[in-house]
Design brief:
Strand content: 5-15%
Helix content: 40-55%
Protein name: DNA-binding NarL/FixJ family response regulator
Organism: Hydrogenophaga laconesensis
Strand order of the largest sheet: 2-1-3-4-5
CATH topology of the largest domain: Rossmann fold
CATH class of the largest domain: Alpha Beta
Order of helices and strands: EHEHEHEHEHHHHHH
Number of helices: 10
Number of domains: 2
Radius of gyration: 19 Å
GO molecular function: DNA binding
InterPro entries: CheY-like_superfamily, EvgA-like, NreC/VraR/RcsB-like_REC, Sig_transdc_resp-reg_C-effctor, Sig_transdc_resp-reg_receiver, Tscrpt_reg_LuxR_C, WH-like_DNA-bd_sf
CATH superfamily of the largest domain: Response regulator
Keywords: DNA-binding, Phosphoprotein
Largest sheet: 5 strands, parallel
Distance between the termini: 42 Å
Shape: elongated
Number of strands: 5
Length: 219
Amino acid sequence: MPEQQPPRTILAVDDHELVRMGLRQVIVQRFADRFEVAEAAGLEQALQFLQQRAADVLLLLLDLNLGDTRGLTGLQLLRQLYPRLPVVVVSGTNDPRVREEALAQGAMGYFCKTGDTADLSGLLDTVEKAATPTPARAPGAAPPPASPHDTLARSTRLRPGIRLTSRQIQVLELILGGLDNQSIARETGLALGSVKNCVSTIFLDFNVRSRAELIRLFS
């Protein structure tokens, strides 16, 4: 039986043809022919493509304001139908609140299509990250970080009735991974003040006063 090939298609979903062409161009310039870039002019067209070729798609680049959807509705539907498909938002909306909510809804990244060098570099680095396979764990090595589902399940066992948001689960995982507030802010794209507020809420939820106490709960 032939070995299944890893996905290598990047699906760019935007209702502006010039934007789709631009995304294709920068990806080809950076990665040559490593990836196939497919295009969809709207959410419905993207869903039709995924019905046929979801297994081929490595990453989906999603605009938030399409002809057939607005705001985070498209992201929410994609996450519901294809929870394992990495989705990166590429939007003209440069609003920190929208960015934080998109990340909380499960977007792998959020970048503005304004031509900013930092956003472009971050987008291309995210493509590279999505394409990099997770290395096999060596015997005796520490286990990989828990998935959000595992973290939530363990949280519920530790503190019955606890309710964590997607953002709190993400921050909790990073705390358990040993990251400080500054590193969490860089990793998530959140403002430092937002990270501090989230960490304080997590401490209150688990009735701990320090990172060390929190980590001991999960050890």
